[in-house]
Amino acid sequence: MARPTANFVCTECGWTTLKWAGRCGECQQWGTVIEKDAPTRHTAPARVAEGRAARPITDIAPRDESHTPTGIVEFDRVLGGGIVPGAAILLSGEPGVGKSTLLLEVAARAAKRGQRVLYVSAEESVAQVRLRAGRTGALSSELFLAAETDLATILGQLDEVRPELLIVDSVQTVASSLVDGLAGGVSQVREVAATLIRVAKDRDLPVVLVGHVTKDGTIAGPRLLEHLVDVVCQFEGDRQTALRFVRALKNRYGPTDEVGCFEMTGDGIAEVADPSILFRSGSTTPVSGTCVAIAMEGRRALPVEVQALIVASNAPQPRRVVNGVDSSRVAMLLAVLERRCGMPLSGFDVYVSTVGGIRLTEPGADLAIALAIASARREKALDPHLAAIGEISLAGEIRAVAGAPQRAAEGARLGYTSIVDASAVHVREAVRLAFASAADEPAGIPEF
């Protein structure tokens, strides 16, 4: 008896199965299992056209990709200097974070420079986009609006308008009549993105695609979408605060460690060229439980004030509440301070937070968190001109972090004359130095 053959395959990972399944058993993606084409066909070699033969790489002249600035310095920083002709850019982010507002500003500034821009809104009507543009001042006669969800119609709009920049908001809401399934499905997103990117390459037309994200923060749709485009940018921010960050997760034309800083206002989105003041309190009086960390956001060093509050507790399990920092990291630092520095903390509720809503995820903020907790526990303010840089190990050792010279230079620029870093060697020594830097503190090891 002939053995049964696998007739279905996953388009994402290649997993095969005898029966159709709605979810791939290997990569756990939905809607990616399709039937194999039968019979199997073999591709015959084709004659290489004249002028397309492979050549030694040393015989190929290099081509400088020219960046066209968007006029938004922070966005240009992330893109590597601007938008490259023929580039496909994917901008993703949570709903309401400000993706459409940013791209409408990009479109308006390009149009005011004389470029013809086509802004395709597949989620809002042209009247809604016009209302937002009037509020933010993004009006120009060279900016064309279209509310379309059909891919063929969008291609027809391209032939009519012949733009120099295309923005599609969003790729998950556009559908092609040639592919089965609803808009946003794996097959539809793949077809729409591939078609628009092919048009971008053929016409040397830069295309900016807006992408939705799932509940866990990843870009919705097939992973192939991120491989197809040239640049992937993530728009981050808490809707409870006005601060927004744009990060480059992939960039074929520039660095991937740059971060752009923006602020949402009533008049649209505004650049924040120097965000150093946003993450520090404006108090001029020294307060216990505060310490400044010099954190790295991409290539940019940012001072972030860490605040801690210690309250005596009679509960069998004291509370540990954090905001803007990792809870497990704080729990580890509390254990290190109690064990390595003799600081009793097991009978206290501990609250740790950052200023300005920023989130510190890097280990370079460990030392600042530890010093803020020590200051709150002793109820003694640290020197307001002190900043801390360093990662703390379970043994209490302070480790050097990446970008230490740049962090120290930024701290010196902002007036921090005392920098406690890996030169302190041990967290107990760092605590001693931090309290010794205060004018009213002795140089000895503080008692708790």
TrEMBL record:
Q: Where is this region: Lon-protease-like?
A: 349-448
InterPro entries from the entry? AAA+_ATPase, DNA_repair_RadA, P-loop_NTPase, RecA_ATP-bd, Ribosomal_Su5_D2-typ_SF, Ribsml_uS5_D2-typ_fold_subgr, Rubredoxin_2
- Residues spanning the signal sequence: none
Q: What positions does the entry give for ATP binding?
A: 93-100
As one GO molecular function, the record gives: damaged DNA binding
Q: Which residues form the RecA family profile domain?
A: 64-213
**Record-given protein name:** DNA repair protein RadA
**Species in which this protein is naturally found:** Microcella pacifica
